[in-house]
Amino acid sequence: MESAPRQTVPSPVNWDLAAATAARLCAAGPRFTRHQAEREANGLRRAAEVSVDHVHRITRLDAAKDLRDSEVLVVDRPTWTKANVQAFSTLLGPAFEHVQSIRPDEYARATSGLGTVATAMEAGALLAFLSSKVLGQYEPFCALPGPDGTPAGPEGGRLLLVAPNIAEVRVELNVDPEDFRLWVCLHEQTHRVQFAAAPWLREHLQSNIMALVAGMFEKADTLPERLSARVRALVQGPEADPASVERGQGSAELGTDEHPASMGLLELIQDPEDKKRLAHLNAVMSLLEGHANVVMDAIDSSVVPTVKTIRQRFDHRGATRSSLDRWIRRFMGMDAKMRQYREGQRFVKHVVRELGMDGFNVVWEAAENLPGEQEIQHPEQWIQRIRETG
C-alpha cells in the first residue's frame, strides 16, 4: 500500500535555492580524464565491498553479512550537497508542520519574508564549503517519506563516497591508492553496519531530533525574529558550542554527518529537557564515530600494508593546517566534531578492553543501552550499569 503524500507547509528555508547555491559554489576539485574518473569510482566500489567482511570480522556483528537493503553511491561534490539538502528538508519538514499547527500566524510571518532566502543562501554556501572536505557520509534518513510521500532512498539508507575528495587527499598524502580507499571505506561501512545491527536506531534518532527541533521553535519568544537563526543552527549542526569548539583540535573529514556549525544550538536552548535531548544526541554521535574509528584502526598491515603510513600522514595533515583553514574549521565547528571522535573512541576502547567486543555489542540491542554523555566520558559507569541490568 502506497503512503499518502504528506501535507506540506511553507519552509523557513528555501531548499531549492539552498541546493542551487551549494551546487554553484562547489569548488571544481581535481581534474580527471574519463578513464581516471572510472578508475577512481571502480576502485572505491571495490574497496566498499571488500571492507564489509573486515568490518564483520572486527565488530562481530552479524548484520554485516547482509546489507542489501542499503546502497553505496560514489558521488561528486554537487551530488553530495544535493543529498544533504534533501535530507535536511525531509527530516525537518514534520517539525515545521507541528510549529505551524500551534503558532500559525507567527509561522506565516516567519516564512513569508526574505529570511527564507538568506537562510537558504547561507546554508548552501556552508554545504558548498564542506563538499570539498567530506570523504564519506552514511545517510540513514533518506528512507523517510519526503513531501510527496516517497522515500528518497532505500530502506537501509545509503553511503555516499565523495570520489574527488578521497582522490585529492590521497594524492596530497602520497599514499597507496588501494590502501587509502580501503582505509576510508572501513570507517564508512562501519556506520552502515551500525544501523543494520540496530534497526531501531534511525527512528530513535529521528524522534529525538524531531522533538528537539519542535521544542526549540515552539518555545521561541518571538518566532519570526528567531526562526531563521534557529534553522541556520540546525542546518549547521549541534557541534558549535563555543567552549567545545575552542577545546577541539584536528580535522573532521570522516563521519556520518559532517555538517558545519557557525553558531551553537546550546545558545538557543533554554529548556532543561531540550538540553538533555541534545546531550543525548551528542553522546550517540560520539559512540558511532568512536566505534567507526576503532574499527578503522584495528586493521593491520596484513589487510592494509601501508596503514601506519596513512594514519601518520593523515594525522600530520590535520596538525599542519594553515591559520586561515584552522580558523574556518573552528568557526564551522569541525574541530568540535573531532572531539566527538576522540571521546567516543576512548569509550569504545575502554569497554572492549573490559568486556570484549561481544560485551560491547549489547549497545546495539536497545535504546536503553546507549551511553549517556556522562558515560561517554566515564565508560566505567556504563559498564557498571550494563552489568547491573544484564
Largest sheet: 3 strands, mixed
Mean pLDDT, as a whole number? 81
Helical content band: 55-70%
Radius of gyration: 20 Å
How large is the share of residues in beta strands?
Answer: under 5%
Structure description:
This protein has helices spanning 15-25, 34-59, 77-102, 104-110, 115-130, 163-173, 177-197, 201-218, 223-236, 242-247, 265-268, 272-297, 307-319, 323-332, 334-360, 373-377, 379-389; strands spanning 71-75, 136-139, 158-162. It is mostly helical and 390 residues long. A three-stranded mixed β-sheet has the order 1-3-2, sandwiched between helices. Helix 5 packs parallel to helix 9 (223-236), helix 6 (163-173) packs across helix 7 (177-197) and helix 12 packs across helix 15. The two termini are 40 Å apart. The model is unreliable at 1-6, 238-252 and 255-266 (pLDDT under 50).
Summarize the structure.
65% of the residues lie in helices and 4% in strands. The chain has 390 residues and is mainly α.
Notable characteristics:
390 residues; mainly alpha; three-stranded mixed sheet; 17 helices; 65% helix; globular; disordered N terminus
What's the layout of helices and strands?
Blueprint: H1 15-25, H2 34-59, E1 71-75, H3 77-102, H4 104-110, H5 115-130, E2 136-139, E3 158-162, H6 163-173, H7 177-197, H8 201-218, H9 223-236, H10 242-247, H11 265-268, H12 272-297, H13 307-319, H14 323-332, H15 334-360, H16 373-377, H17 379-389
Parallel strand pairs: 1-3
Antiparallel strand pairs: 2-3
